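<amino_acid_chain>
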Amino acid sequence: MNHQPSSRRQFVKASSALTAASLLGAPKVLKGATNDQVIKVGLVGIGGRGSGAAAQAMNADENVALTAIGDLFEDRIDLRTRILKARGRDKYQVTDENTFVGFDAYKKVIDSGVDVVILTSPPAFRPKHLEYAVEKGVHCFFEKPVAVDAPGVRKVIDLAKKAKQKNLSFMSGFCWRHHYPKQEIFGRILNGEIGKVNAMYSTYNGGEVWKKKREENWGDLEAQMRNWNAHLWLSGDSIVEQAVHCIDMMQWAMGEELPTHAEGSGGRQVYDDMDKYGNIYDHFAVAYQWENGARGYHFSRQQNGTAGSYEVELYGSRGYCSAKNRHSIIGETESWRYRGEKNDMYQTEHDTLFASIRSGETFNDGEKSAHSTMVAILGRMVAYTGQKITYDDALNSKEDLTPSHSDWKTALSVPNPPVPGVSRFL
């Protein structure tokens, strides 16, 4: 396998193919674009979520084409493109010349002439990939979380503002925000139907997620990249990479108001092998507090054989609701339950994104998604250190999780897992 950061096939398209608008960083699909104008889409990171997002993008608009793909590993491209070709049919227009491998594949995808880029690489790379896309004037769909540390979150907040200035759509993968039942129930919550929200209970309890056994020819970096969800610097840990969905829903219920501080705990009870499980925790318990006294209690775990729970419950001054599963409200005088239309939220978010690009009324949830990511990072910080930490201090943290190098051959050790009371807040 060739691990050099270069294109799969030598990219030789003439630079004249780039329009003056793209060179200036202006959006390529402008307001008033006709319906027969083809929107070209590029995909960076062709894992399960990436290939799913690409298929949904191809279904979101009559005149859309997937024209470029990039990933760190060629075998992943070979595996997934067969599925995408079948699902996309004539909308799948990726050629060998527009298929790229390596750490710089994201630049080559973006520079290939796409109008929209789907960014679904491990979250450690999200801020850098977004920065290049916004610089080049390309509309973005990017998976959650937006970053793994505070410097990355701060960068994405700035990029969201720049995307607005450039009239670029800038959509995160917080898919539950596009789920009809949740749109209805959170609308009712924000409209005061359960009164003042006093307490929230959120869970993301399940078993272990996928792991790949290390192969003999893998160096340290490749072994970590192939199992990115087990490594702090790549995933941000499970509370950030996975359970952030529930934390985002708590933020939604609070009208995007940020918590003042948090405290909590966590650790490794079953993740006892660093070669297999990396250096992340297998459970978290975090209590958040807001300025008005509301509290949010979050619990998550990745432990096989345990009871599963994926819920967000809200307790208000005038009622209680299940916002995640039952979509119901029990009020002081009457109760309500969602009986309306259900939808594929993954498809709806892409439908919304491409409609916004066609109309020129761009969609941008970048700042909200960055702050929800930061609330999850705050939860990780308090669990790792055992300290009470304010949101402002967390957001201004100088802790940068980027490793010392990104060389395939040089040794790259896995840092020991944090120890509460010993590990320090930076």
